[in-house]
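Shall we go through a protein fold together, starting from nothing but its sequence? Label the sequence line and the structure token line clearly, so we can match residues to local backbone shapes. Would you write everything just below, so we can both look at the same thing?
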Amino acid sequence: MSHIERKDGVVTMKPGVDIVASQCVGLKKEFLEIINSGEKKISIDLSETEMIDSSGIGLLISIRNSLANNGGGEIELIHLSDDLRQLFKVMRLDNHFTIR
């Protein structure tokens, strides 16, 4: 289960695990609960995430699209390791997510 904090109109979610196929169903449920509650700004803290596989990338894109289809909003990724930052850059996903 992820750590979720709400502060100043921003929901920060810290998965605390690698975002891989075996974790995606549970994480998607948590993200959709946040989106369906009307939240428009989601910050995903990846400080404890070492790996994201193709299913995890698909999950993040799906969540981004769900937020867009639910009236818009913003997803930012924070505290990425150098390896994850490079992965997002190589895949050009840094054009679709705010990365801090």
Observations:
- The radius of gyration is 12 Å.
- The first strand starts at residue 3 and ends at 7.
- The mean pLDDT is 94.
- Helices lie at 21-36, 54-69, 82-90.
